[in-house]
Amino acid sequence: MPAPMVTPPIEQLARARQSFAGLSRARRELIVAGLAFAVGLLAMPFLIWMGGNRVLGPYTHGDNPKAGPWALFADYVVGLAHGSAVFWVVALGPLALLLLIRGFFALLRLGPFQRRY
Questions:
Q1: What is the pLDDT of residues 60-102, one digit of tens each?
Q2: What's CA 72's distance to the chain center, in Å?
Q3: pTM of the model
C-alpha cells in the first residue's frame, strides 16, 4: 500500500493565501477583525499572566497564593460577563491596535503633509 501524499507546509500556506485572496474585501476584513478579537479574548489573559508572573510574582486568587493562569482566565471571563470596562479594553485591545496601525499607514499613503503658512 503506498504512503499517502503529504503536502509540504509551504504549499499549504500558498493555497491558504490564494483562497484568502479570493475572498471579497469585506469578508477578508471580517476574518482579520475576528482573529484580532479572538486573540484579545483568548490569548491576552495568558500573555498578561506571563508578564505579571515574571515581573510581579505569582497570581493569587483568594486563599490560593499560586493560582496560575487558569484562575486569571476565569476571573477575566467573569469580568467580561459583568461588563467591566477594564476587561473589555483588554479584549478589544488587539483590534484597536490593528485599527490604529491601519490608520497610521493610511495617513502615510496620503503623501507628505502640505504646510500652509
A1: 877 877 788 999 999 999 999 999 999 999 999 999 999 999 9
A2: 18
A3: 0.75
Q: Please count the structural domains in the chain.
A: 1
Using a 10 angstrom Cβ sphere, with 0-12 exposed, 13-18 middle and 19 or more buried, the burial of residue 66 is exposed
Residue 32 lies in a domain: yes
First to last CA, the chain: 80
2 inside domain:
no
Domain range for 71 is 18-109
